[in-house]
Specification:
By secondary structure, the chain is an alpha+beta fold. It has nine helices and four strands, in the order E-H-E-E-E-H-H-H-H-H-H-H-H. Strands 1-3-2-4 form a four-stranded antiparallel β-sheet, covered by helices on one side. Helix 7 crosses helix 9.
């Protein structure tokens, strides 16, 4: 549905039918849907409301097509280490945006942006190999979760800034990049959980 509005009379059967069609169509067209009932009882629907008084009735489901390619691998490895696969997808999205060939300014590599020395410690021979990279990254993140007693923000901050840095500050380090990283991972995590 491209930007537009349509209206129906407030008949419960018609209303339910229209809502069903909107739900099905938004799964492919991906748009928020709003409704508005005017003074004559006519219900209007739009994905681009132009006036005040419209109510959001269907929230666009955020869909990340890049994550689909790695979903089976992420699920399998996450299950092995008992870590929520939505959380691993969130970390990968924040780290590399699902680019298996990503290299950061400081030399971190692959989907989960493993530093060469960390990869070596985790027995990851090829950081650009998605399976090896995800396996190493999830194993490392599980270690951090355990070290920080399940405190998710601290484990996420440690994945970004290092375990010793989080311990030094006894919490999330006061670096804007780390604070932003933790915020983004938690936001993506909630999106993927839906």
């Amino acid at each position: 549905m491209s930007g537009g509005c349509f209206q129906i009379l407030a008949n419960p059967f018609i209303l339910a039918s229209v809502l069903w069609v909107l739900l099905v169509s938004t799964s492919t067209s991906r748009a928020d849907i709003y409704s508005y009932t005017d003074k004559d009882g006519v219900v209007h629907f739009s994905n681009v409301p132009t006036e005040t008084g419209w109510k959001l009735i269907i929230k666009e489901k955020r869909f990340d097509p890049k994550s689909i390619k790695y979903q089976p691998l992420i699920s399998k490895i996450s299950k092995k280490y008992k870590v929520d696969n939505s959380l691993i997808k969130a970390i990968i999205r924040a780290e590399s945006n699902f680019n298996p060939k990503a290299v950061s300014k400081v030399g971190a590599r692959g989907l989960m942006q493993l530093m060469p020395e960390t990869a070596e410690e985790l027995n990851v021979n090829d950081s650009f190999n998605p399976k090896e990279n995800i396996e190493g990254g999830v194993k490392y993140f599980k270690y951090l979760l355990d070290r920080f007693k399940g405190e998710l923000p601290l484990a996420i901050a440690a994945y970004h800034a290092g375990e010793s840095t989080v311990r030094k500050y006894n919490g999330i380090p006061p670096y804007s990049s780390t604070k932003k990283y933790v915020k983004n991972v938690l936001k993506f995590f909630k999106e993927y959980q839906r």
